[in-house]
Amino acid sequence: MTDAVSRPADLVGRAQDIRRRYGDTAVTAALWLLIVGLVLWSALNSDTRQLFVNGVVVGSVFALGAIGLTLIYGILKFGNFAHGDLMMLGAYFAFFALTGRVSERPRFDKELPWSLDSLPGAVDRLGDLTFGYGLIIAAVVAVAVMAALSIGLDRLIYRPLRRRGAGIVIFAIASLGVAIAARSLMLIIWGPEPRSYVTGIHKAQQYPFDIRLKTDQIFIFAVAVGLAVLVYLLLYRTKLGKAMRAMSDNPDLARVSGINTDQIIAWTWVIGGALVAVAGVLLAIQAQLNPQLGFVILLPLFASAILGGIGNPIGALTGALVVGIAQEVAVEYFAPGYKSGVAFVILIVILLLRPRGLLGARV
Amino acid sequence: MGVSILPVLEVKDVVAGYGEVEILHGVSIKVDEGEVVTIIGPNGAGKSTLMKAVFGLIPVKKGRITFKGRDVTGSPPEKMVRFGLSYVPQSENAFATLSIQENLEMGGFIRRDGLSERLNWAYELFPDIASRRHERAGRLSGGQRQMLALARALMLDPQVLLLDEPSASLSPKMVEAIFERVAQINRSGVAILMVEQNARHALQFSRRGYVLAMGVNRLEGAADELLESAEVGKLYLGAEP
Ligand SMILES: Nc1ncnc2c1ncn2[C@@H]1O[C@H](COP(=O)(O)OP(=O)(O)OP(=O)(O)O)[C@@H](O)[C@H]1O
Ligand SMILES: [Mg+2]
Fold it and tell me: Could you tell me how far CA A90 lies from the centroid of its own chain?
């Protein structure tokens, strides 16, 4: 009993000892070496090469989620527990825009007379992809809806809390409430059964080095990396992005400089909402539409954001790729059920050894 | 010297604090056009709190703040800079994670045009930071950071500049450099309201001064009178150099 209670404290104490003895730089260097070593090894080892590639794809989806999470944290200073469920909700909005379907009773859908898939050729496959241009328009619709919804949630919930000077725990709990509401909404409207944007089986293609990949996976990777670069350019090259970083650094000084922080917050939700929707659609392409999936993915999202250094989008991308690869490669050695356990272990190790994350907190 | 009819900045009987705690119990201060005014007082007197209240970072519970005859009480900081005031806080007065250039760009955030001209102007006035413009501000030395903070506050060409202890914890040489720059800024027509620990030094180039203690006005007067006043000398100026 006492042993079980004192253990976590011991762990924290020991982690502090390690950091004190070897210094922050040495610990960070060791972590980097370990991570780069494991990633390279899993890429070069023929047993795990395929899993490594899958991990990169999974990690790309995590990356978009983690970048949104980290942006919101940087500006609003709270961990948004609704992020995963809002991702999934965005994916369902895209599904609805595409198919016009909602669940009427178990395993029976009601379908709107018109939806995007009624457009001529909207579901014809684009090249080797499994979906047509209809899904891309549907994703754009979801982006707009999620951006608007994010602003609405801020006005309704987070802004009143800010005005009251609520602490970080209150915000986190409020976002947990949003998460549960979003999940319930999905269950009510679309039911608990997993769905997907397209039907039928799609075979993977053969690539050199014995790697099999679906073209969808390449698409996911490309979109995720493209958007990550766009977010980077936004933050470092545009006036809005610099103001966001300024506010993340020092909100009072930002106001003193004439930056309207309410506006910056609104833009953060717009960008965060857009990223959430794209991340959700990619997740649904990669896995499936499933009301439970949003919450499952939350842990790897947090692990990714914290591994890279929370508040830092480049870090989030790096962290997400590492977490994605680690989760997939672990399948070679542990039962697939332990996948989220991997994210959890990474989270704990980083929090103990280098809480600022690999690339340091804040941009 | 022309006689101005209205002070540019007038603070009248201001009551303010943090939450329920009242720190300022009715403070009055005025700054005339082109003047340098120094506020001195012991630690915890409420000098920084006064600056924050004037600039709208904390609510003013009672009293009035006017800028050029216009009531600006309760205006948020992002409005105050649009009116023509600027403020350098006592601590954390630069964005540590942004580059020097980005800090200055943020200072000029609401400028519609002429940003690059103003940047060049700032780099000319502060050559020390010009050579490091793409480095993170967090890596600057104390003196250079203070220079950056000044430069940031000047990006909008303000009419009144509030400075909270610009020379705090700097080397004597750096203190000299900062004061020189402040005097130069003032000569270009910017009125300055400054809180200072280096009271003697600050009063020497101020026109008037105030002594604040326990959240109320304790003394006020022409700077040279304050410098000669026995009470001020004993309390805040230390021994004659
Ligand atoms: N953010 C805050 N919240 C609550 N109380 C504060 C806060 N900042 C300052 N105070 C309190 O207000 C009082 C006045 O502080 P203030 O910073 O205005 O003093 P000061 O005259 O600027 O002193 P110094 O010379 O040390 O800068 C102090 O008692 C301080 O503890
Ligand atoms: Mg102070």
Answer: 12
